[in-house]
User: Which sequence fits this backbone?
């Protein structure tokens, strides 16, 4: 049976690098992530994955090959996959909390 309600409070945080942590639920080839980025997070390479998201708290700056876009609470993110949309994100505030929906 598929799960309809996701209890993020019951899930453990995963911290793959300094300044980033997330909780993720995977189902039917999609991933729902609750993510937090701190100012100490540094993205070393360009990301070419697609992301759809919503900023809950904080301010996020995303660099699209020299074109910088700022995102804040209540704003959505829609980044298609592919090299032409490669990007690097960084937190402008101490912490940025957001929801992301991604293909696996």
Assistant:
């Amino acid at each position: 049976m598929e799960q309809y309600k996701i209890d993020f409070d019951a899930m453990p945080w995963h911290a793959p690098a300094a300044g980033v942590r997330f909780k993720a639920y995977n189902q039917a080839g999609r991933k729902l992530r609750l993510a937090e980025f701190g100012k100490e997070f540094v993205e070393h390479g360009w990301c070419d994955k697609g992301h759809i998201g919503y900023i809950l708290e904080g301010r996020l700056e995303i660099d699209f090959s020299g074109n910088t876009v700022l995102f804040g609470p209540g704003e959505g993110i829609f980044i298609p996959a592919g090299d032409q949309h490669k990007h690097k994100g960084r937190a402008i505030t101490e912490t940025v909390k957001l929801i992301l929906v991604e293909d696996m």
